[in-house]
């Protein structure tokens, strides 16, 4: 049957989560091929009104396309019975626990069905009904709205945000607010939850204040090698990368002279770096065969890097022997590189 969009009552639309990507695909399909699958409705209490039971994404897409009508199938049964049948037809594996809780709460509050009756209708235990109702009753409304809008995955809300809210609802809401519209992965939320529950008050405060920064730092710490050899190689790679980046900036900004203040600070820092590098070279054991092992470990990349380093060793030697001379006349060029040296 063909229905006017104005005849539809979408009171149960909030029982389903939204999936922006799926809705975009559906919108494109409807614009190209038109509606192929009818929505499901039941007769409402008012004349010429129909309550939508299934097909909310199709209705939203048709509204966006400016349609006036929609194809629908009317089930000749009561509204609560239709909601239960639709859930059973969809299958519990395609409906999240949060959505099940929303449906059960709607049936309890709107139609006054008891937990024992719901357990019988859904062919579940009373304990299952009670757990689903407890989920949506304890989960903060702000979190539920994020789930409904597709910003937070239902599994993340049930697995991590619910116990976090039970521990400290204020921190749970602050954490969600800091994440904003970013949809955190299950793995990321798991890390935040574990670190929050295991951390002290200071750790929890920092985590809630900036969870994205906390995740970046945590990921970096997890990638950092734990053995002495791995840590040494990681530090040497970082040292070489920083030196190469500074040298490249000096080459790009050779035409720009430094101010006297910046040049003085740069000379002090380069003097400190030269001293530490000299100590490092002195400390490093010079054994026969070291170069061969380095070539074997580094391959062609090590050979290429060595060639570039050889080309610039003269510059480093000049700095060691005659101070900081990055340009004729003793001026050190590259003003804009100064603030980024510590990055």
| Spans of at least 5 consecutive residues with low confidence | 288-343
The major beta sheet can be summarized as:
5 strands, mixed
CATH class of the largest domain equals: Alpha Beta
Radius of gyration: 32 Å
In CATH terms, what is the fold-level topology of the largest domain? Conserved hypothetical protein from pyrococcus furiosus pfu- 392566-001, ParB domain
Which range best describes the helical content: under 10%, 10-25%, 25-40%, 40-55%, 55-70% or over 70%?
Answer: 55-70%
- If you average the pLDDT, what whole number results? 80
Gist?
The protein is an alpha/beta fold and about 350 residues long. About 65% of the residues lie in helices and about 5% in strands. A 5-stranded mixed β-sheet has the order 1-5-3-4-2.
Any overview of this molecule?
This protein is of the alpha/beta class and 343 residues long. The chain folds into 3 domains: 2-136, Conserved hypothetical protein from pyrococcus furiosus pfu- 392566-001, ParB domain, CATH 3.90.1530; 141-223; 228-340, no CATH class. The protein has 15 helices and 5 strands. It has helices spanning 20-33, 56-64, 79-90, 97-111, 115-122, 126-138, 141-148, 154-167, 169-179, 186-198, 201-209, 211-223, 228-252, 260-283, 290-322, and strands at residues 2-4, 8-9, 39-43, 50-54, 69-74. A hairpin with a 6-residue loop joins β3 and β4. α1 crosses α2 (56-64), α4 (97-111) packs across α6 and α10 runs antiparallel to α11. The chain starts with a strand and ends in a 21-residue tail after the last helix.
